[in-house]
Amino acid sequence: MDWSRAHRTRIQMRYSDTDMMGHINNAAYAQFLEIARMEFLAALMPTGTLHAETLQTEAPHPETQRLTLVLAKLELNYRREVLLSQVVEVLTLPSRVGNSSWDYAFQIVADGVVSSDGSSVQVHLDPLTRRPAPLPGLLRERLTAAMQGAVPPQEAAHD
Question: How far apart are CA 144 and CA 138, in angstroms?
Answer without folding.
Answer: 10
